UniProtKB/TrEMBL annotation:
<dbReference type="GO" id="GO:0046872">
    <property type="term" value="F:metal ion binding"/>
</dbReference>
<dbReference type="GO" id="GO:0005737">
    <property type="term" value="C:cytoplasm"/>
</dbReference>
<keyword id="KW-0963">Cytoplasm</keyword>
<feature type="binding site">
    <location>
        <position position="340"/>
    </location>
    <ligand>
        <name>a divalent metal cation 2</name>
    </ligand>
</feature>
<feature type="binding site">
    <location>
        <position position="207"/>
    </location>
    <ligand>
        <name>substrate</name>
    </ligand>
</feature>
<dbReference type="GO" id="GO:0004239">
    <property type="term" value="F:initiator methionyl aminopeptidase activity"/>
</dbReference>
<feature type="binding site">
    <location>
        <position position="238"/>
    </location>
    <ligand>
        <name>a divalent metal cation 1</name>
    </ligand>
</feature>
<keyword id="KW-0378">Hydrolase</keyword>
<keyword id="KW-0031">Aminopeptidase</keyword>
<dbReference type="Pfam" id="PF00557">
    <property type="entry name" value="Peptidase_M24"/>
</dbReference>
<dbReference type="InterPro" id="IPR036388">
    <property type="entry name" value="WH-like_DNA-bd_sf"/>
</dbReference>
<dbReference type="GO" id="GO:0006508">
    <property type="term" value="P:proteolysis"/>
</dbReference>
<protein>
    <recommendedName>
        <fullName>Methionine aminopeptidase 2</fullName>
        <ecNumber>3.4.11.18</ecNumber>
    </recommendedName>
</protein>
<dbReference type="InterPro" id="IPR018349">
    <property type="entry name" value="Pept_M24A_MAP2_BS"/>
</dbReference>
<comment type="similarity">
    <text>Belongs to the peptidase M24A family. Methionine aminopeptidase eukaryotic type 2 subfamily.</text>
</comment>
<feature type="region of interest" description="Disordered">
    <location>
        <begin position="1"/>
        <end position="95"/>
    </location>
</feature>
<comment type="function">
    <text>Cotranslationally removes the N-terminal methionine from nascent proteins. The N-terminal methionine is often cleaved when the second residue in the primary sequence is small and uncharged (Met-Ala-, Cys, Gly, Pro, Ser, Thr, or Val).</text>
</comment>
Amino acid sequence: MAALKTEILAENQHEDNNNRKQLEIDDKENSNEESKKKKKKKKKPANTAPPVEDVTHEANGLKEEDNVEGDKKKKKRNRKKGGSKIVQTDPPSIPIIDLFPDGNFPVGEIQEYPLVNDDRTAKDRFTSEEKKALDRMHNDIYNEVRLAAEAHRQTRKHIQEWIKPGMTMIEICEELENTARKLIAEEGLKAGLAFPTGCSRNHCAAHYTPNAGDKTVLEYDDVVKIDFGTHINGRIIDCAFTHTFNPKYDKLVEAVRDATNTGIKAAGIDVQLCEVGAQIQEVMESYEIDLDGKTYQIKSIRNLNGHSISPYRIHAGKTVPIVKGGEATVMEENEFYAIETFGSTGKGVVHDDMECSHYMKNFDVPYVPLRLQSSKTLLSIINKNFGTLAFCKRWLDRAGATKYQMALKDLCDKGVVDDYPPLCDIKGCYTAQFEHTIILRPTCKEVVSRGDDY
């Protein structure tokens, strides 16, 4: 009995030992599994947002390898935000300089130069590396003019859509000038309007803008010439168009637009000015117009012309005729020109008429002693606000000048200031005008004021 019990106890002890070993193994396995689960819980899922430190690194432009996807999305959003373009308001009010934050403004229409006496030099300019280098040297100047041109384009687009019969001429001029001042970001003599808004009607071809109190109203049957200028640092855009409401004047408008484009095409380095005038007249006078049962040949107004432009000087010395027989003077590299043509159903000659509104300080006048204190005060206002740029009586009013009529006459009598009265053909006729500013760049001709409208 005693031996069997010992055997049983031994067997039981062996089983207990085996059970303990199994429990230890199970405990180890369970411990390993729990440890794995804890590790899995600690491991960051792929789509978890980065910790605060990673966000800071992102802000500093650093990359985290486990955060590449988030970085890509963030950069994409930033590009979209940074690349968003400011859009002009309607009516336009945002300065052009804000619409083009990179400082590069739209280039005008590019034309190759015409052949002069079958000399291919003009054509070769377009591809010449030497001429391209000269172009780049003057790019800052070209860019200033392009800024002024874009302000002109957007202003006239607004006016063309806005202008209606029944508006007063003062109302039209003030809307145009206020718009242009905003777009050019007017700043004293650094940026602003280059000369008063011409809004000459019918037989009056040029140099009319309303003085204070003028109650003239634009009518449906009027042919109005809108001629205004913008400038940056004295680099002037001189550009004009004719606006009509009655389609019976379409042929007159077409003739003058065609003549202006002909003059632009003919212009170029080493081209004689008289040759440009001859081509303009030929095209202009090939047109006829029927008005109220009578046929008129459209004539070039022979005592009006285009002109060269220099900083703060609208008429810089060279004239571009619009009839044959002018000067044989040639156009030169890097000159600026206003190519403008006038067509008329009248005599084709203009004369001074009506009350004067346009004035301009004489660019070449030496020092002139002034006796009247009122003349000295007025000249100080002119120097501060306009310099040698053209101005009108409305602008003197705006600048704060008062009771200046006698002083203005005194300055004109002494040759310090020149007056420019309205220029008119015979009463009852109709005149039209188109004008563009061009640059004779070393490589090409740039019609810097060209737009979708004309």
